[in-house]
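This week, study the protein below.
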Amino acid sequence: MPPTSPRAEAIAKLRSKVESRLNHTHEDRIQQLAARLQSSLQSPFDKAGSVQALGCSQHAVRSDSGAGQIRLADVFDELLASDQAHRMAQLKEEVTFREREVYRLTEALERSQLEASLAKQQQQTTDAQLAKASTSAALLETELRRLQQDHETLAQQVPSLSTGKALAERAAAVGETRAATAEALLSSKSQELEQLQVHYKRLLSDQQAELERVRQQLHRQATEQSKAASAAATREQDLLREVQAANSSIIELKTAVAAERSSGRGAAVRV
């Protein structure tokens, strides 16, 4: 899980604090190591004296031989490195512990913030439900008042309603009487209607029979007219043939007359 912003800030502050502590205690730690080293290198005769300061110890080391200076520097470096490594390991452990603590506190803070957000949402939901319930209660109260007013109005109208009920009952009795009369009249009219239907059916049957008779008569007349038309057509053809024959005879007579005239003129000319 990547570090959140509060966790990163806490880790940065912790590292800054550790670096500050290292910078402030570095010189003091070197002086303490130098004093311990000088004390371990002193001869039994020198152990009775007091331990010199760091500057005096370094001056005494430089006054020794070259081999002693190398050995003292190596031992000093080794002790310093060992102490620094031990100190750095402790500081790393402390930093790791603090980082875990910061991570745990950050998670707790995030959970608290999430719970606070959920609680806020629940509170908002509850407030909205309360407001809705208040509105519903106000509406119900208004509706109850209206119903009470309607009940009072109806209670005031009960006497007039009783009178109206009596009038309605009397009107219903009159209506029932009229309904019985209308039913009897309807029964009588139904009988008359049945009689009229029988009469109309008989008239319709008679009219259909008359119509059939007229249709047959018209059919016979049409047949006779067709026969007469056919005979007239035949007669017309005969007359046409007779006219044509007469026309032919007239033409022949005219031709004969013309011939006679021609022959008469020829005889007259010869005379």
User: Anything to note?
Assistant: The CA atoms of residues 113 and 119 lie 10 Å apart. The chain is about 95% helix and 0% strand.
